[in-house]
Amino acid sequence: MSVQIDLKNIDVEFDGNKAVNDVSLQVEKGDIYGIIGFSGAGKSTLVRTINLLQEPSNGSVTVNGTELFANHHQTISNRKLQDERKKIGMIFQHFNLLNEATVIENVAFALKHAKLKDNELEKRALHLLDLVGLKEFADSYPAQLSGGQQQRVAIARALANEPDILISDEATSALDPKTTNQILDLLYKLNKELKLTVVLITHEMDAVKRVANKIAVMENGKIVEHGNLREVYLHPQNELTKQFVGGALEAQHILNTYHFDALTDNEELYQLVYKIDDVTKSIVADLDEALDTKSSILYGNVEVLSGEAIGTLAVLLNLDQDKQKTAIKFLEDKNVVVTKLNKGVLTND
Ligand SMILES: Nc1ncnc2c1ncn2[C@@H]1O[C@H](COP(=O)(O)OP(=O)(O)OP(=O)(O)O)[C@@H](O)[C@H]1O
């Protein structure tokens, strides 16, 4: 995999305040890179540096092997920057369509500099509308379309110049959950079929879980955690990440209702997380049989992470310390990630 977007030590300062503070991020070709964080974390400002819609106050920006910015200066001509920008499509929460123009005219508008003959222009615009499932709405006006359909038009328009990167800045925030999933699935399809790299800014973990392969968590202008989605999901280190990892949060909420003060010395609570495909469905029964014990399952959940089912269990083991170790080894040998829960709270020991 080759690095396609390389942001190094990016600062963006507004009125002496750092909206982005020393952020480095590498996006590889073919990634769907989710950038998650609460409002004001600096996500939009950071991604706007990718095509220099926002100039950094410090740091360097390299896209598709071309350095665009370094040492406080744009390092290519404006003309070249325009060309580079064409390779980076963007979609936003607001669709920003031209209401007086038809759907096909909206898409064709993005091709106005492409020097295509009229029939080629129409053919290309129709092809793009077909790609997003809206060919039959070519002659409709935006107001006649639903929010999800309007976002599809915006996606077709963003793809007009055949970009190899698509930046989606809260593009599903104004949509209902079902439409959100349809748009996310469209981005996933485009990623696979067009080999389109997607940078997905959102405050919704569900969106990241559905389609992303990588994740960066932003807080106060900094990336506090990043990496492969499954790894970050299975081993969240940062408090904010733990909050975004819905299953863990839900588990803690439920476990907090148990009375852990009543646990005996031999009782320990563990969180087991595993890829369903890797593990026999009877993992806890297998453990009980191997160690001649009876474990209690206090919480169980299955989530789908970019198409992969991940199981989470909170299990109470009633074993002496040596046997606890044997149990953990038994589970880890079976590709289960085991984390001790201290009275229901995730710990790192
Ligand atoms: N042009 C600007 N001038 C001054 N301050 C700005 C500007 N753009 C962003 N900011 C500030 O920078 C910080 C980060 O904003 P940014 O929009 O990047 O956050 P975000 O994580 O994308 O949140 P949101 O989802 O609300 O857009 C905020 O405090 C915001 O007020």
UniProtKB/TrEMBL annotation:
Residues 5-245 form the ABC transporter domain. This is Methionine ABC transporter ATP-binding protein. Keywords: Amino-acid transport, ATP-binding, Cell membrane, Membrane, Nucleotide-binding, Translocase, Transport. Pfam families: ABC_tran, NIL. GO terms for molecular function: ATP binding; ATP hydrolysis activity. One of its GO terms (biological process) is amino acid transport.
